Amino acid sequence: MTTYGTIPTTTTAVTTQPHDLISGATDQIQSQLSTLRPWSEFLSFTTLSIPPSFSVATSRATANLPYFRTNYTILILVSLFLSLITHPISLLFFFLLFGAWLLLYFLRHAPLIILARVMDDNVVLLVLGVSTVVFLLLTDVTVNIVVAVTVGVAVALVHAAIREVDDLRVAGAEFEDERVGFSRGGGERLPLKDTASSAFSS
User: Fold this and answer.
1) Residue 32: which residues within 8 A CB-CB, separation 6 or more?
2) 71 closest CA partner among 145, 175, 155
3) Residue 78 and residue 72: Cα distance in Å, rounded?
4) For burial by CB atoms within 10 Å, which of 29, 94, 157, 171 has the most?
5) How far is CA 97 from the centre of its chain?
């Protein structure tokens, strides 16, 4: 018997595919690497000087931290790598966990869907946080990681405080735009997670 009015149905994705996560993360990483400043500029000894006062040091740090943010991030990651280089198994698990944080939280540009259910960001954050705590408890590198991050952050703060900023303003007019969080093309420059969240709400 012939039937009429049948509406074809389409199958929707029930789980976020790994290649979608990797593709989105790759785009975000490339975007962030575009803000990497030349290391010759970052390490120029002619621009280093002891700040005459705490207010000057604070002013320099306020300017340098966003300007060299990608360089400082790489510096801290190198510090972490060196602290774990003598613990290859822990280093492997650390990179796996670090990759999970990047793919599933910081660099994710679309909702995470598992078995046709959209995973709430708080759930993802809780799972990653618990996994991180378990990793730290089950390995003997907790002290190494804490010391490495502390050293990396301390070096970044010292560099930000002693590096003069006059040449940064001369280097490009967009520096001031980046410091207040706006790009030259217009529109607010959001942190990575805010960018992802705004994509979810659209």
Assistant:
1) 70, 192
2) 155
3) 10
4) 94
5) 14
